[in-house]
Amino acid sequence: MQSPAHTWPDGPAVTDADTAHRAPLGHPSIDDLLARARTRLDRLVPEDAARELADGALLVDIRADLVRRAEGEIPGSLVIDRNVLEWRLDPCSAWRIEEAGDHSLRAVIMCSQGYMSSMAAASLHDLGLLRATDIVGGYEAWRAAGLPVVPGATMPGSYVATAPSPISLDPGGQRMLVDGAPVALTPLEFRLLTALLRGNGRVIPREDLRAGLGEWAGSRSRSVDLHIHRIRRKLGPRAAALLTTERGVGFRLRAAPAPADCR
């Protein structure tokens, strides 16, 4: 007789045969660890998480790329791969993000169903981020509550835009997608556009772009401007309007066209 299958949180189906073994005496099961993790968290229902996001909390989506492509994303959330989460949010880490300025950071972690996120938030508590928490029911509960979602798969390290941008990158193919159509880029153009997309609409100083490219022929000249010009030509008229030059500072890649000046 075949063992019945069970639904496994945030993972594949398992059978009774898979769960026949028990942890040695004195060792917790994963269910025990999950329960302990949640006693440390002031977990949020989706509606409360939405209010905290609007008030400035950092909503971090740790779902895999393929899952986000299939399920959708939350506008304003920051996409961070689970395997680098602690390094990105620890204020003491050399690889921390700009938002992780100190241990008072309010980070709300989200996965598909709210299991992996609880373990991740408890891990952040171990780093001193005692205000970290997660969403009860995860993304599925957020969507079921009728809260805003958008399609797509935002590049890790970037914020999800309020509407899908016509410009995205295909890291595997080292190419740009403009309204879904592939456009070839040189390696330097790809690195420049990656930096601009990670800026999430912020102005990126010219010197930061140059430094991010490292040492390369022409790196001490106006070649950054030249490559930006070439990227604009490849974008086409509509998308090119999103890549703007901020005089005397650098460049900005907007998610949507800038509002008209009505003065």
TrEMBL record:
The keyword DNA-binding applies. CDD domains: trans_reg_C (cd00383). Gene3D superfamilies: Rhodanese-like domain (3.40.250.10), Winged helix-like DNA-binding domain superfamily/Winged helix DNA-binding domain (1.10.10.10). Coiled coil: none annotated. GO terms for molecular function: DNA binding. It comes from the Bacteria. Keywords: DNA-binding. Residues 158-255 form the OmpR/PhoB-type domain. Residues 53-151 form the Rhodanese domain. GO terms for biological process: phosphorelay signal transduction system; regulation of DNA-templated transcription. This is Winged helix-turn-helix domain-containing protein. The keyword tRNA-binding does not apply. It comes from Streptomyces sp. R35. InterPro entries: OmpR/PhoB-type_DNA-bd, Rhodanese-like_dom, Rhodanese-like_dom_sf, Sig_transdc_resp-reg_C-effctor, WH-like_DNA-bd_sf. SUPFAM superfamilies: C-terminal effector domain of the bipartite response regulators, Rhodanese/Cell cycle control phosphatase. Residues 158-255 bind DNA.
